[in-house]
UniProtKB/TrEMBL annotation:
PANTHER family: 2-OXOADIPATE DIOXYGENASE_DECARBOXYLASE, PTHR39479. Gene3D superfamilies: Uncharacterised protein PF07063, DUF1338. One of its GO terms (molecular function) is dioxygenase activity. It comes from Pseudomonas orientalis. Belongs to the 2-oxoadipate dioxygenase/decarboxylase family. It comes from the Bacteria. It holds the Pfam family HGLS. This is 2-oxoadipate dioxygenase/decarboxylase. The keyword Oxidoreductase applies. Its EC number is 1.13.11.93.
Length: 458
């Protein structure tokens, strides 16, 4: 009997991302307002900048812009992380990068599950920033053991989701009906629960230790805590937020505004206070917030080192965590320090600071098979036979992520942990290694060069 055709993991991810966005819009109406504001802003920016529209068309990004989202979850145990990794694998998402947030006072370490090939990213760029709580950082042994017991008791996946993950692994894929069932079942893991699993007093104790610990330990599952659309002009959206009833955090995380955006800029609005039924009383909890992001070019190790150096110098000079009171000075210091980072693509490329994609131009295609077609990439570029586009950064930034966490946890939540970063332990929990994002960008860049050569040098 012929096997039924499998749906591609890209299609499953696309369907899942849409279902998640619909669920979140139903649950958090402010997210819907944010989506509208971002869509309006993007349309206006594209209308006013034909050049930008043309660039986005060439790389295909214009099609993915409106569907682009990232979300975040926080897990409690190694077993949960291992299983979520298998769940995401069904949708073609792999763990990329390791982020240690403990130096910034957030007791988690994290990775980002996402598609890795440029074609898959084009089909659906959906990503999930996934954190694992570091329970060993709870100092009080009784509270730590309470947290461990509470987490050991819960099961964050439905039996249906677990069965379909196994089936997908055994059969190397799912058919259309099973893919739909998988999306429905998988979504349950990310749903919000109005009922906590602990008493109001237990919640208070966990929360006093760290609000993040309460957010993970006191609930049945790792509710999605935000979904982030991508904007083409984050400053415009930030400025327009208050008029739409949304109060943004004090500063935009990441690099300053530039002519040629680099890496990632992000801003968020504060988590909503939501009613919760503890096992013995009514109360409230805040976890779910809104965020927007603007993505720029991915940086090479050299470019990233320069970025980190300039960011650290700015923060050292500011001498404090950026907040309402020092926001203007922070922005001014950022502008000043980042003068040292070239703000045009040609210089960034020549100095090896960023990754790019290469495309055959109409002129290059017309010269195919002609004796005067240049033979090297550099010569093809100089002749205008190959065109260059920045390769978009697909990942996250640890300092920014910590800033987003902190703004939602409140300034009182700042803690100082002496613990070391522990990638090995994280990967043991995950059951596999995390991928190196820089290698992925390098591969995409190289594939685009190879393709130019293949097409132009016949
Ligand atoms: C994740 C915060 C980090 C980002 O975009 O950097 C993040 C969380 O609050 O769980 O979402
Ligand atoms: Ni985020």
């Amino acid at each position: 009997m012929p096997a039924t055709a499998h749906v591609s993991p890209d299609e499953i991810r696309k369907g899942f991302s849409r279902a998640m966005s619909d669920m979140y819009r139903d649950e958090v109406p402010l997210y819907g307002s944010l989506l509208e504001l971002v869509a309006q802003t993007n349309a206006r920016v594209l209308e006013g900048d034909q050049g930008l529209a043309e660039h986005l068309r060439r790389t295909g990004e214009i099609q993915r812009l409106g569907m682009e989202r990232h979300g975040a979850i926080r897990l409690g145990t190694a077993a949960e992380l291992a299983t979520i990794s298998r769940l995401f694998a069904v949708m073609g998402m792999q763990p990329v990068g390791y982020y240690d947030l403990t130096p910034a006072g957030v007791p988690v370490h994290s990775t980002a599950f996402r598609a890795v090939h440029e074609q898959s990213l084009q089909a659906s760029p959906f990503r999930v920033f996934t954190s694992l709580l570091r329970l060993e950082l709870i100092e009080n042994p009784a509270l730590r053991s309470f947290a461990e017991t509470a987490l050991a008791k819960r099961s964050i996946f439905t039996p249906g989701a677990l069965a379909l993950i196994e089936q997908a692994e055994t059969d190397s894929g799912l058919d259309a009906d099973d893919a739909q069932a998988f999306i429905r079942q998988a979504l349950e893991t990310f749903r919000w629960h109005h009922n906590a699993t602990v008493t109001a007093e237990q919640y208070r104790q966990l929360s006093d230790q760290h609000r993040l610990i309460a957010d993970v330990v006191a609930f049945k599952g790792p509710h999605i805590n935000h979904l982030t659309p991508r904007t083409l002009d984050i400053d415009q959206v930030q400025a327009a937020m208050p008029a739409h009833g949304i109060t943004p955090k004090a500063v935009i995380e990441g690099p300053p505004r530039r002519h040629c955006p680099i890496l990632l800029r992000q801003t968020s609005f504060k988590a909503l206070d939501e009613p919760i039924a503890f096992t013995d009383a009514q109360g409230s909890h805040s976890a779910r917030f809104g965020e927007i992001e603007q993505r720029g070019v991915a940086l090479t190790p050299k470019g990233r080192a320069l970025y980190d150096q300039l960011l650290n110098a700015t923060r050292d000079e500011l001498g404090a965590f950026p907040n309402e009171a020092n926001a203007a000075r922070y922005e001014q210091l950022m502008e000043q320090h980042f003068q040292a980072f070239p703000d045009n693509h040609a210089q960034m490329r020549e100095q090896g600071l960023a990754y790019f994609r290469y495309f055959p131009s109409a002129q290059g295609l017309a010269a195919r098979g002609q004796p005067d077609q240049p033979r090297t990439l550099q010569a093809l570029l100089s002749a205008g036979h190959v065109e260059v586009e920045p390769l978009v950064y697909e990942d996250f930034l640890p300092v920014s992520a910590a800033g987003i966490f902190q703004s939602n946890l409140g300034d009182t939540a700042q803690s100082h942990y002496a613990a070391h970063s522990n990638r090995t332990e994280f990967e043991q929990a995950l059951g596999r290694c995390t991928l190196d994002e820089l290698q992925l960008y390098g591969e995409t860049q190289q594939r685009s060069v190879d393709e130019c050569m293949r097409v132009l040098l016949v």
